[in-house]
Every structure is written in structure tokens, then in C-alpha cells.
Amino acid sequence: MSDDSSSRIAADLRGWIATAPPGARLPSTRNLVTRYAAGPVTVQKALRMLTTQGLIETRPGVGTFVRSARAAKPHDYGWQTAALGAPPHRAGRLFTALRTVPNDRIALHSGYPDRELLPERLVRAAFARAARGDATVNRPPSAGLPDLQSWFATELAAITPAGVSPPAPGDVVVFPGSQSGLNTIFQALIGAGRPLLVESPTYWGAIMAAERAGVRMVPVPSSTQGPHPDELARAFEQTGARAFYAQPHFANPTGVQWESRRAGEVLEVVRRFGAFLIEDDWAHDFGIDAEPVPLATRDDNGHVVYLRSLTKSVSPAVRIAAVVARGPARERILADAQAEAMYVSGLLQAVALDIITHPGWRTHLRGLGRQLATRRDLLLTALRDHVPAARPELVPRGGLHLWVRFPERTDLARLVADCDAAGVIVAPGDEWFPAEPTGAYLRLNFSGPNPGAFPEGARLIGRALAEQSR
Questions:
Q1: Cα separations (Å) of 4 from 21, 35, 46, 52?
Q2: 79 conformational bin, left if phi > 0, alpha if psi -120 to 50, beta if neither
Q3: d(CA 67, CA 90)
């Protein structure tokens, strides 16, 4: 019988339990099989449902009984205040991009692409194949599966110009997602109390990782062309920082892609100050009208520490990323990664490798760019029609988001709350600023679910904004 049959049996038994006294004994499994004309497995599933719901309890060798109600009592966790002391970093908070919302809401807040933009068929097949292989029982090397290391190195090597030595597989360290990579990089290469230059605005996950590592963030203003080299040089000189974190391609949240000349000037500043450029290539697979060429392809002296993620483009269930670093920096990163988690699941690495080496992967990416373009343009049109006072900073040539500026006197917190109450979830731009925001912004995801609802979502945003002027 189906799971529906188990649910029906559980529902019928819940009615009996509601009137039975605590401790009452349920009929045996054999009697329940007879009563409901069901198989033993179906009845056992129903009983497990009731057990999970806390309605019954099984006493081995005795039987199954209606669970006695437990008297409620207040919990006293006050002792933990003294035991824990002051938090080492700002109190944790749930960033809007991580909110899970009901399907009836218009979700423009997420940092992840919709399921229909993922290579679902490749993912399912890869898990099935990996489950039959040795990855289910073997411990992988701490730095990652050699074939996966080789793939990440080869991807960079294929676009590295002549005269620059490409990275080797041994320069690669595999991580369980880019957030883990950022945590490790900041701890291993910068350290608590030391300065880290960051673009402003910048990725909220980098802000969180820096706070957890105790790193002191120093914002560097960035425009639609990227950070100005003179501003960056001044920040290095004034702070003594030895690292700069940036997303040169389709930055989160702004969507900015540095032009080639600006990228070269920034890299030259980093070299002049003997510093690291931590290049977060989070959107490598999300090009629309442009293809990213990482700055890591211009450097073979270890100045660029390159972070490449597969999580958003492959599947949220396959949290795999890689850090490419050279020299002592790579050794420190690997040592910190070993201390944190020892190694990354070999099963997930095998799945990721299966997908990205499958011929269908390149086919999927070619179609993905066209899909993202359609969604981006649909949301831009909806905003132009329904929220004319809002101004996208630019039309991104890749990535997943629009960075939208609102009029100067906009009460952003009220706007977000009113949108939420109306059924459209948006992400406040304040969460992407490492210091004070420079304006009222929303980051809107054009890769989220139900693009057909974008016009309605924009209409609700426009209505909430109009309410503030009344």
C-alpha cells in the first residue's frame, strides 16, 4: 500500500488516541494489520508517524502505548550568560537572502536560482552513479579528490594567457561551499584584529565571515566600473592592510563587472603593496552578455587567491567550492581547512565531478544564459512600469540580481515590511554594506521562482513606496 494508506491509518488512530487515557495500550501490529487490511510495513509506517508526533511510545517487549502528557516547566538558561561571556563577534542574524518563504509569496529576495534553472537531470543521475561507487565509503584526501582538483586547475589554465604560468592541481583546495572557503581564507591569511579591504557594498556572506574571524573590515568605495585604483592604494597605505576582498565579475549585490583595464590597474596596486587579492568568482557560470575572465589568470606570483563555487549553478544540495592559492598561502589555507573539517564529503565531490565533466553540463550553461537574460529583462520592464521612482544602478551582464536604488527619503525598513505584508519578499540593501549605507537599496533576484509574478511583485513594491508619500 502507498504512503497515503499509512497516513490514513495514522489519522484514524489519532482520533482514537485523542479519547484514550494516557498509558492506554494500542492494539498489536498483527491486530492493526487485520483491522485495516493493510500490510505490516504500512502499519509500521503509520506507527512511526505517530511516534514522531509524540503521540505514542513503544516499550520493547511490552507493546505500544498512548504517551503520557509531560508537565510543562520553565527552562532556566541564565547560567549560560556567565559561561559564554561576551560574544566574539556581532550577534548572529538571519540574513534576508536565506529566508524560506511559503510558495504563495512572490520571492525576490533569495540568493539562489530557481530549481528550473538547475541541471536537475544531471544531478539526479550523478547521485545515483556516485552511490554505487567507492566514494560512499572512502575517505578523500584533505585537499580534495585529485580529479576534481585537476578540473578546477584546468578550467583556469584553459584561459590563462601565454607568458603566465597556469595553476597546478596541487594549488587547489576543495571546500564544502564558498562560505567555508571565505571563513578559512580570512582566518588563515588575515587573522583577528587585522584589516581587510572590501568593496562597499559587498557580499553579505563575506561580511559575516569577516566578523566571525574577528577581521577588521575597511570599506573601499566602488562604482559601476569597480573600485578606483587610487582609492584602493590610499586604503592600503593608510591601514597597512595586506588583503583586498572583491568580486570582479557580476558582483553580489551590484552586478558590476570590472572592465579589463580597471582589473589590471587594481591587480597592479595589489602587487605594489605586496598584498593578496581574494577574488570571489561566485557567478562564473552565470554570464548573460559577457563571460568572466578571472584575474587569477593574470597572476602566477601568488597575489590572487581565487575562490570558485559550484553550489549555486549545480545544486544547493551539492555544496562544493575550490580555493586556488600558491606558495605558503596555500599551505596555511589547507592547514586551517584540515583543522576545521578534515576533509569534504567524497560523495559530494564525486557528484560534482560527474556533473561538470558530463557533456550535458556545457549544453546546460549555454541555455542558462538565455534564460537569465529573459528573466532579467522581465524584471527590469516590470520595475520601469510599476516603480518608476526606483532606479537600477546598471543592467547586469551576468549574475542573478538587480541592485535598485530608491528615492533618498525612502524609509527602507518600512518599505521592506510593507512589501512583506503585501506578499512580496525583498532584500534590504543595508545588509550588503560593511559600514553605513550610502542610500536606500533593494537587491532583487531575477532568477527566483515564478517569473510570471514579477509584474505583480513590482506593482506591490510600487504601491508600498507610494504609501510613504501620502
A1: 27, 17, 10, 17
A2: alpha
A3: 42
CA distance 16 to 20: 6
CA distances from 159 to 2, 18, 155, 363, 465 (A): 53, 68, 7, 19, 46
**Is the separation of the CB atoms in 255 and 203 below 8 Å?**
no
27 burial via Cβ count (<10 Å: 0-12, 13-18, 19+): middle
Terminal CA-to-CA distance of the chain, rounded, Å?
Answer: 60
Q: Residue 125 contacts by C-beta under 8 Å, 6 or more apart in sequence?
A: 354
The length of the chain in residues reads: 470
Name residue, grid cell 528615492: 407
Alpha-carbon distance of 358 to 123, in angstroms, equals: 11
Q: What is the DSSP letter of 71?
A: P
Q: Are 446 and 400 in contact (CB under 8 A)?
A: yes
| CA distance readout (Å), 110 to 95, 146, 339 | 10, 33, 31
Which amino acid type is present at position 167? P
Number of Cβ within a 10 Å radius of residue 255: 26
Tally the C-alpha atoms within 13 A of residue 168's C-alpha that lie toward its C-beta.
5
Peptide bond into 253 cis (omega under 30): yes
List, run by run, the mean pLDDT of 10-residue segments along the chain (470 residues): 78 87 88 90 90 86 80 71 66 69 87 94 96 91 95 95 94 95 95 94 94 93 91 95 96 95 96 96 96 94 96 95 95 92 93 96 95 97 96 95 95 95 94 91 95 96 90
pLDDT recorded at residue 1 = 45
pLDDT of the residue at 15: 87
Q: Which residue has the cell 566600473?
A: 225
Output the pLDDT for position 87. Answer: 63
What is the reported pTM? 0.83
